[in-house]
Amino acid sequence: MEDITDSPFRSICKRFGADLVVTEFVSSEGLIRDAVKSKVKLTFGEDERPIAVQIFGHDVDSMQKAAEMAEEGNPDFIDLNFGCPVRKVVKKGAGAAMLKDVPRMLKMTDAVVKSTRLPVTVKTRLGWDSGDQPIVELSEQLQDLGIAAIAIHGRTAVQRYGDRADWSLIRQVKLNPRMRIPVFGNGDITNALVAKERLEQTAVDGLMVGRAATGNPWIFREIRSYLETGMIPPQPTIRERLEVLQEHFRKSLEHKEERRAILEFRKFYSGYFRGIPSFKPYRMELMKATLTKEVVKILNGI
Ligand SMILES: Cc1cc2nc3c(=O)[nH]c(=O)nc-3n(C[C@H](O)[C@H](O)[C@H](O)COP(=O)(O)O)c2cc1C
């Protein structure tokens, strides 16, 4: 997830039990232009493996070139984003806009699969809008081009992040007897109970957790434990949350420029302290802090 699943956070998620992680999406045009931000997004630590680099774009040649550049960093696989509904992405015909141009999506997938020795996976949505949800047939077509797995977010592009994710079509994809590749389901996995329910209802091969992991890497440990033993481990203590938050913040400062690290880190505070009402005044202070020493002082005062 953009501005969330950077290397410091991915490494923490792995430690708490995520099986595989994906980079923030990387613009194919940005990579080719040598944009520094795009290149930074390609970097990862060995502890993050298995890891996918996710790329997006509209132009087939650029995506092919970007896949080759991504391959140089030696990730475990390359993931194509055909699901992002954000205006600045869709306006350029990329991300979820590819759902409006399936022939182009197929051509792009074919070109990338042929140009890299790495497994290629696809992340997409049910379709563009409620009247156009081709995911069952589309998954088969993508499979036939040689992708290694597909991850499906149970919403249309038009729904963006609204309404509840609809897992019924994800189930249909999985139950399609022609499907051989792993199918991953995504959308509104908020805790271990929901995770188990979705696995049982749909028989998908794996689940992807997005927003609920933001500032809550413990969700992976909870899901894993519940699936394996039927037990949910105790919630992390305030001390533990604070320690992981501080470690995450330190790693972010090492990973990117100070101001950006501090601003982007604001997305994590409410997750780290979810359900703790006494944290609200600290959070309000943290949301205003612009210097490392200010953030550190507030955290030390908790
Ligand atoms: C802030 C934000 C950034 C995201 N960035 C990406 C991205 O770069 N690539 C991607 O495949 N999905 C991205 N997503 C979508 C999530 O991966 C996921 O599909 C979606 O949030 C639904 O899953 P969830 O209900 O578990 O969050 C993003 C979502 C959010 C909220």
Please identify which CATH superfamily of the largest domain we are dealing with.
Answer: Aldolase class I
CATH fold call of the largest domain: TIM Barrel
Structural class: alpha/beta
The span between the termini is 29 Å
Count of separate structural domains: 2
Architecture overview:
The chain is an alpha/beta fold and 302 residues long. It has two domains: 7-229, Aldolase class I (TIM Barrel); 238-300, Non-ribosomal Peptide Synthetase Peptidyl Carrier Protein, Chain A. The chain has helices spanning 7-15, 28-32, 36-41, 60-72, 87-90, 102-115, 135-144, 168-175, 192-202, 218-229, 238-255, 258-265, 269-272, 280-286, 292-300; strands at 21-27, 51-56, 77-82, 120-127, 149-156, 183-186, 206-208. Strand 6 (183-186), helix 9 (192-202) and strand 7 form a beta-alpha-beta unit. The longest helix is centred in the last third of the chain and has 18 residues, at 238-255. The model has no long low-confidence stretch (mean pLDDT 96). The structure holds flavin mononucleotide.
Question: What's this entry about, in short?
Answer:
This protein has 302 residues and is of the alpha/beta class. It is built from 15 helices and 7 strands. A 7-stranded parallel β-sheet has the order 1-2-3-4-5-6-7.
What features would you highlight for this structure?
single chain, 302 residues, alpha/beta, TIM Barrel, Non-ribosomal Peptide Synthetase Peptidyl Carrier Protein, Chain A, seven-stranded parallel sheet, 15 helices, 46% helix, globular, binds flavin mononucleotide
Topology at a glance:
Elements: H1 7-15, E1 21-27, H2 28-32, H3 36-41, E2 51-56, H4 60-72, E3 77-82, H5 87-90, H6 102-115, E4 120-127, H7 135-144, E5 149-156, H8 168-175, E6 183-186, H9 192-202, E7 206-208, H10 218-229, H11 238-255, H12 258-265, H13 269-272, H14 280-286, H15 292-300
Parallel strand pairs: 1-2, 2-3, 3-4, 4-5, 5-6, 6-7
Helix pairs in contact: 1-11, 4-6, 7-8, 9-10, 11-12
Bound molecules: flavin mononucleotide.
Flavin mononucleotide (FMN) binds next to strand 1.
